[in-house]
Amino acid sequence: MTDLEPGQLILWILLLVVILFIGAALFRSVRIVSQGEAQIVERLGKYHRTLSPGMHFLVPFIDQVRQRVDLREQVVPFPPQPVITSDNIVVNIDTVIYYQVTGPEAATYEIANPMAGIEQLAVTTLRNIIGSMDMEQALTGRDQINGQLRGVLDEATGRWGIRVNRVELKAIDPPATVQSAMEQQMKAERDRRAAILTAEGIKQSAILTAEGDKQSAILRAEGDAQSTILKAQGDSRAILQVFDAIHRGNADPKLLAYEYIQMLPKIADSQSSKMWIIPTELTEALNSVTKGFGGVPSGPTVETEDRPEVDFGDGVDGVAAALRETSLPDIDDALAAAKGEAARATDEASEAGEQSGRPARRTDLSGQGPNAPHRED
């Protein structure tokens, strides 16, 4: 290759520079915009257009990109701000704002620093809202505060091409002294509820205990009544069996007098007995015993005739059959029936004694004596 002349060498250099310049101009004229992003293009220092996602061509050295705008939703936390409530308590409030750029041109040319503007607007609006509430309302009215704050910010940032989607209060921190007082109040409220629940439990326990005692006393009384009825029925049937056995055996006055003498020590055998009066029937009983063993009675005797046999129905077999068929009746009916049977047996015994020629002494089966008043069970 022959050496080039100086003029040709300069020409080649100029040609290479032109090619490089054209390549650089073509490279700068092609713009690729990513998804979720917008670019503001100015032509000779004036707004020309907004590039959407995709590939675009610009005029080299005339069109230039002024700013790239992120169209995705942004989350911006603000530092804690001291705010005074209506009851003069200073609380620190952390705020988080969710916003999205809807107008890239307005966000670029309407405000120089949109984040600073949103922060200052949020602080002033928050102080106005909290200043009209007391601390209790501020702690419990987060939804109300969020709604009012979002409405004010959305209205103000609309002309900036920014839409505020949500505003959240991360924390509301009252002073330490107020927190201590609130904890004491909550503890006192819990203690009050615990005392109320304990008192309710004691009350229910006392009611259930009293109800159980009542039912137990009722059942015990019913059991005593049933026992008394059964005992009275047993005594009445025992008396019937004794009288039936005596009359079936055709006991004479000597045997009865002997049994009467045997019962006298039992009658007098009592720790509370200070004086015992011998009954008038004792002489007659002694005469009957003496006569029975072949002796001569010491006093006048009464001639007795053959005593007729008293008819007690079916006798022992009838009594046994009646006992087998006995069922527990009503309390009042059972007591009345038992008393009637005892009185009827006594009357029959008295009639038998009168028929034998000797006045019979009527025995009171109730245990109260002839002159005792009648006692209702």
From TrEMBL:
CDD domains: SPFH_paraslipin. Keywords: Membrane, Transmembrane, Transmembrane helix. Residues 28-186 form the Band domain. It is found in: Membrane. The chain crosses the membrane at residues 6-27. Coiled coil: none annotated. InterPro entries: Band7/mec-2_domain, Band_7, Band_7/SPFH_dom_sf, Band_7/stomatin-like_CS, Stomatin_HflK_fam. SUPFAM superfamilies: Band 7/SPFH domain (SSF117892). It is a single-pass membrane protein. Residues 334-377 are annotated as: Disordered. PROSITE patterns: BAND_7. Pfam families: Band_7. Belongs to the band 7/mec-2 family. This is SPFH/Band 7/PHB domain protein. It comes from Flaviflexus equikiangi.
